[in-house]
Design a protein that fits this description.
By secondary structure, the protein is mostly helical. The chain has one domain. Helices cover 80% and strands 0% of the residues. Helix 1 (3-25) packs antiparallel against helix 4. The mean pLDDT is 91.
């Protein structure tokens, strides 16, 4: 498993955690009787962090591929 694969897997896990937090955060919109703390909205922003990690894995893969070509 390459470094890019590891970074991508980490990004996918972080994204999934963020999506779960997003689902929890929108629960009060669907069920008005549920009251949650406001920090759930902040936790849902982890989704964007996970997507940035996934995108950075493409950069890592490209750098490793170009480094192997130049050797």
């Amino acid at each position: 498993m390459t470094t890019a694969d590891k970074v991508m897997r980490i990004g996918i896990v972080v994204t999934v955690i963020g999506l779960v937090c997003t689902l929890v955060a929108i629960t009060p919109l669907l069920v008005p009787s549920v009251h949650l703390a406001s920090w759930w909205w902040g936790m849902s922003m982890i989704t964007a962090v996970g997507l940035l990690i996934v995108l950075s894995s493409f950069w890592v893969a490209g750098r490793s591929r170009s480094a192997s070509i130049h050797r």
